[in-house]
Structure prediction request, 994 residues.
Amino acid sequence: MEKKINRRKYNQEEILWGAILIAPTLMGLIILNIKPAIETLILSFQESSGFGKTVWAGLKNYKKLIGDPEVTQAVINTLVYTLIAVPFIIVLSLVAAVLMNQKVKGISFYRTLYFLPVVATPAAVAMVWRWLYNSDYGIINYLFSLVGLKGASWLTNPHTSILAIAIVGIWSTVGYNMVLLLSGLQEIPKDYYESAEIDGAGAIKQFFSITLPLVSPTLFFVMVTTIINSLQVFDLIFMMIDKTNAALPKTQSLVYLFYKQSFIMNDKGYGSAIVMVLLVIIMLITVLQVKVQKKWVNY
Amino acid sequence: MKSQKLKSKVLINLLLILGACIMVLPFVWMILTSGKTLAESVRIPPSILPEKFQWNNFKVVLDKLPFIQFYINTALMILFRVVGSVLFSAMAAYACARLHFPGRNLFFGLVLMQMMIPTQIFIIPQYLLVQKMGLLNSIPALVLPGIVSAFGTFLLRQFFLGLPDELEEAAKLDGCNVWQTFFKVMLPLAKSGLVALAIFTALFAFKDLMWPLIVNMSLDKMTLSSGLANLQGQYTTNYPQLMAGSLLAIWPMLLVFVVFQKKFIEGIATSGGKL
Amino acid sequence: MKKIIVLSLLVISGVFIVGCGENKGDEDGRNEGKQTITYAIWDTNQEKGMKEMANSFEKENPDIKVNVEVTPWDQYWTKLDAAATGESLPDVFWMHSNESYRYMSNGILMDLTETLKTSKKTSLDNFPKNISELYALDGKQYAMPKDIDTIGLWYNKTLFDNASISYPDETWTLEIFLAAAKKLTDEEKGIYGFTAVNNGHEGYWNFIFQNEGKIMSADRKTSAFTDPKTVEAIQFYADLINKYKVSPSADQLAENKPVSFIQSGRSAMGFFGSWMLADFKENDYMKENTDVAVLPQGIKRASVYNGLGNAVAATTKHKEAALKFIEYLGSKEANLISAKTGAAIPAYEGTADEWVKNTENYNVKAYVDMLDYAVIRPFSNETIKVETVETEKIADLLSGKKSAENVAKTIQTEVDDILK
Prediction:
């Protein structure tokens, strides 16, 4: 289909309609997002103490950044978080979506329950989970002690803090991706399954031969957005890891560092340089995904 | 064959229940905490059940904050953001997926770009924009950053790409122009995607904290999330009140979801048959 | 369907038009002779008191209306920064010594020197010099001192009674303090004598000053952390956790809100600023079991103190009204209202007693007594950066990973680098 179009010359009517249809979004994006992004790029070459007052600094921020072990560690933290969170989020939300698509009694009740974490206010989520993780009296360690294991101080141990944050990230995202995938599953015509059943294909086979390929456009979307969101992790770290927490250096993400430099330390130039590093990482990964999608996404 | 079906039913139910427990546990704690006194909530080891459920926490929160106003502001913000972003995203997404025009890939690149940038960097420039427009401390200020949606454009593009071509071609043969094809044929087919986007737009708006806090300063222009943030002092937090406030904030969103999810699941069940 | 689109577009544009209209209304208010000024603060605990002041100011000045607006601390500074860039700052707002230099040196705050000199209602002489200095630059005054805070020793009377130790008072030295802390600690029950939090203001700075140590050099251009007296003090502080084991570990303190230890009877003593009082007054457990005393004495007496200021935006459109309000906020009358509503010790000299009178449950006089020997919170041109570095490095000391000397050296180098 795409190739056919490419060979065809542009059609006047389509050009016109294309321009009309994208106009509002394009305008909005340019004013609200692209312009600020360019400003941030410029800011990364400047020194600023806030209030929009800047001095040109050339590559100074970037030079500082290369030699800053905090930045290197934040890059590692961000990638580790993404590597832990994304596979679980994708698999679990797909499983949940498939389950939610079954004809089971009370399924809409389940859907609501699974969606609960998505609706919760972030501050409440952080507070509740801090309590669950608490090494002295948290439920998680209590459960461990029941089976004779000793729990960890999840949020203050530098080895477990990212994992602990990732678990909350997974918990609060599964319901949301589930709804997306569910809406994708809903688009699959029922008769596909009926004829597969007549052919004697089992549930597992149906999943891999019908469900997965047909939901792949939505799945692709879920993957791209989940990875981007994971690379931008900030809120959870900000609210669950205190400034005095010794695990902070091993947990803080690039966005956290950007926030700290830009809004707490008021070094907006340096903060902007840090966010540029993140942008390059996200861009590389996203472009890679767009390239690879042709191999597995079924349009 | 029958016993196998039964087995898989049991398995599905078990999985669903297990998942539900994990999802719900923290909320049970929220509800329990909302009924405790401040002293009970920080007791160590913690008490599971409140000695006597303190409805007073809800009363205090309702007295402290103009919740009705918050509901109205939040609802208005959500309404306009949903209308704007669903409509504009659907238009742009359809163009991206189905029309052939120069600059299409560049536009899609911009859409992806927007999603790649952490939202924190938009805050100050967008504030300055709103300020220049003289809209500080108003409902439009709350709406503005969410009026178009890159996320929505991308999501719906995937939906349109996944739809079969036949219907579109049939519509063309019937003499429909692009707009009519989009509106009468394609849009209804992407209904579940539109509903999903509406739910998420509502949700993002509902959870957005930083923006409403910065752009709207007076209490009567605040949203649920920014109003709740005002419950938390700088130094300590009254957990029971915070939890009570959160519960008061959550229920309308949950209701919206319950209503919509039924709609989009049922609606599609019939349209699926038509294909 | 088309109708729906047209309709929704209309509605959207409608909202914008309405929005513009609303905003104009505000500015037009000026022509009608009534001005509205905004007063931005960050502490919900003080909202009530601030509103009361605004009300009584409005009574005196019927043509001015004051809107008190609270933004939580975390967003307060982001908002102020954006507003300053866009020249849409609130007319009057709270200033903190952490940020004051940046705001003063960038010309964001209005110079109040003249107003203060000519004012009949107030004068800088009514306020402690150290506090007004926090908001002065090159001989100009940029904010009116608002309040003062000191750090006090909170203790759990019940736990003291059980261990038959007499309550802390002004005779206490650090030796007595340590001995008591040891006796009060009961590891099995998970009860500690003290909470040695990673916090300079409500923690180790007090010990440093009591030990005659230094944090900044006199000109505030370099750090003085490697001062042997300073190193000794922070070593003692870390020892409370790692050697004497009278405090929860650094991890435990980072995991729970440190204040929750004293609020749940798991810690017998803790240092808390006077700004916590509003919170403690509301807490039943605290009311029943705890009280406050002056800090124990080291080589000398010391308690860290700080004060907020009320500032006016240089770009305010309501200069006269804002200045009038600032003058009022600096008056004895306003400070007495602040004293009555209780959240912070008013800065106006002589009004602190009124503040003490308004708290029944606790011996808050201790906070005021300490003003005689209180040491001003360390500040510099880059206070926040300096403190962030300090907190990060002290974490290594308190968790027992590094020695006090080592940490002090790192802090010294990095802070000097920042202040260069």
About this structure: Chain B touches chain A through 104 residues (CB under 8 Å). The two ends of chain B are 30 Å apart (CA to CA).
